[in-house]
What we know:
Elements: H1 3-6, H2 20-34, E1 38-43, H3 47-55, E2 68-69, E3 78-82, H4 90-99, E4 105-109, H5 111-115, E5 136-138, H6 145-160, H7 173-184
Parallel strand pairs: 1-2, 1-3, 3-4, 4-5
Helix pairs in contact: 2-6, 3-6
The structure holds iron/sulfur cluster.
Amino acid sequence: MAESDIAPVLTTRRDEAMGFIERMVSKGLGWARKYSLFTYPYATACCGMEFMSVSSARHDIARFGAEFPRFSPRQADMLMVIGTINLKQAPILKRVYEQMCEPKWVVAFGVCASSGGFYDNYAVLQGIDRIIPVDVYIPGCPPRPEQVLDGLKLLQDKIANQTHRVGHRGTTPHDLMAQNYSLTK
Length: 185
Ligand code: SF4
């Protein structure tokens, strides 16, 4: 048996040491944040049509509290990367991500954003997770609006289960991931 299999589970993690009030506040903030997502639609290609479809009346993303697109990264907390990202655009996407305030979440919309899709060539970024952390990947070329809503619900579950703090100024998981990304770049 490997040593890692018999190692005791650490019980001193900070999350587990949270008090009752702190847990209730975190739950309330998580509930509020998951139903008030402000989207920055970084749309570059054909998937943009599907974003329009999911935002309009038939599929109505407003039912999930994510209806307001914001075209300033400082006013958005969900970055939706919609379409093919080529290498010339990669630094711009990274800057947009860095300009967003915490807490923030990233959705890769369609296979081009998730993995480069069928553009397996020298000009296209083979997945946005090479430069920024991604929370939810939505497959499809393009994904149907139902898939997008499904991805949104996955993200909402993730947000609800995260730890939220009032006025937290420490290093966030996204900060750590972003540091690792810049180190490995
Ligand atoms: S995933 Fe398909 S539909 Fe979406 S941007 Fe790429 S090629 Fe276009």
